[in-house]
Amino acid sequence: MASDYDVIIIGAGAAGLMCAATAGYRGRKVLVVDHANKAGKKILMSGGGRCNFTNLNSTPANFLSDNPHFCISALKRYTPQDFLELVDRHGIEHEEKAAGQLFCKDSSKDILNLLLTECEWAGAEVRLKTSVNKISGVDHGYQLQTSSGTLTCESLVIACGGLSIPTMGATGFGYDVARQFGLSVLPTRAGLVPFTLHPELKEQLAPLSGVSCPVDVHCNNEHFREPMLFTHRGLSGPAMLQISSFWHPGDLIRINLLPSVSVCDRLHEHRKTKPQSHIRHFIEDFLPKRFAKAFCELQQWNKPFQYCRNEDLEAIADVLSHWEVRPAGTEGYKTAEVTLGGVDTRDLSSKTMSASNQPGLFFIGEVLDVTGHLGGHNFQWAWASGVAAGQHA
Ligand code: FDA
């Protein structure tokens, strides 16, 4: 008996819609189902409403995975330049914010509209408010019991993302499907997520809420030189989000608060030229006044320079260059931009994204154990893995 569809994709997010258009243009009869009432909710909320849709400098080195070579093939075959050409073809205005990070000039809606238009042109159908209750393998394909009836397909693509932001429709459904068909799922945790602090430090840093400063943060042999933001809940900003993907509970993070300054030399110089000034004044030369005041109170640095011995200056330099913080935890999936871990890529073909042991079953996007750094890499993975599966499903 012929299937209802050649390809059914579960998840109308970035990866699912990209896959649908690609398969549709090949002449495949495609249906995308999603339980949400709107497609691409994460696209809409991404990049502060202006979607950082790719990163021109994206390479496999920007991704974390237990199987780091897996992502290379798909990323090579569909590059940031390819997606940029699509964006340009749709006349979407964009701008490069930080190095390589491309954002919509107007709104994230432009990227979602691009994907929905491409699906329409490719003849792919998108059905929302449809939940999938059961999946069974049948002869030459799959049967889905959904809230809109039973559907059959030759190829089934799982594009239902990770666990981050459950209020936006995130579920562990993709992991359940993987397990059902004998694929391994690696432990998951929240990534690109703000840190929370232990009560005492949280209280001490509370006056700094809203202050941002450029830092170099280190943890587990990784480091990022980006701005850090103090919030009323803890530490955030690009530097903290980036390093959070490398942090494990109990780890210390080491923050260089003055990464562009030779701190010890400058402190000695300052003692010579302005002996009556305080450490606070030295810090104010580089960082916001509010930060300088609160940080000196935290460290109890209250002597004028003229009373600081060489050892004191060395100790101060050490703290400014290696401030050690042991976060209490992270804000978790509630606010995390991504989910680390997920479907083990060792069970998939890196060329087609299909399960090695299960013909016609594909996994793409964030549900896989491939997680990008902050800065447009995660969408680039969604596009590249979506295209790879769309060419073969
Ligand atoms: P995605 O999560 O986009 O889509 C999954 C879809 O599956 C959803 O529509 C969901 O409703 C559906 N679904 C889930 N379970 C289902 C079920 N059981 N049945 C049916 N449907 C189901 N990345 C980046 O590169 N640049 C950026 O600017 C940002 N900004 C950003 C901001 C915020 C606040 C967040 C949370 C995330 C980002 N990201 C980002 C990350 C990026 O959004 C993410 O990596 C991609 O959306 C992943 O695309 P997927 O298609 O894999 O999943």
From TrEMBL:
The keyword Plastid does not apply. It comes from the Bacteria. Residues 189-338 form the RsdA/BaiN/AoA(So)-like insert domain. It holds the Pfam family HI0933_like. Transmembrane segments: none annotated. Its cofactor is FAD. Residues 6-391 form the RsdA/BaiN/AoA(So)-like Rossmann fold-like domain. Signal peptide: none annotated. InterPro entries: BaiN-like, BaiN-like_dom_sf, FAD/NAD-bd_sf, RsdA/BaiN/AoA(So)-like_dom, RsdA/BaiN/AoA(So)_Rossmann. Gene3D superfamilies: FAD/NAD(P)-binding domain, HI0933 insert domain-like, Translation factors. NCBIfam families: aminoacetone oxidase family FAD-binding enzyme (TIGR00275). This is Membrane protein. The lineage of its organism: Bacteria, Pseudomonadati, Pseudomonadota, Gammaproteobacteria, Pseudomonadales.
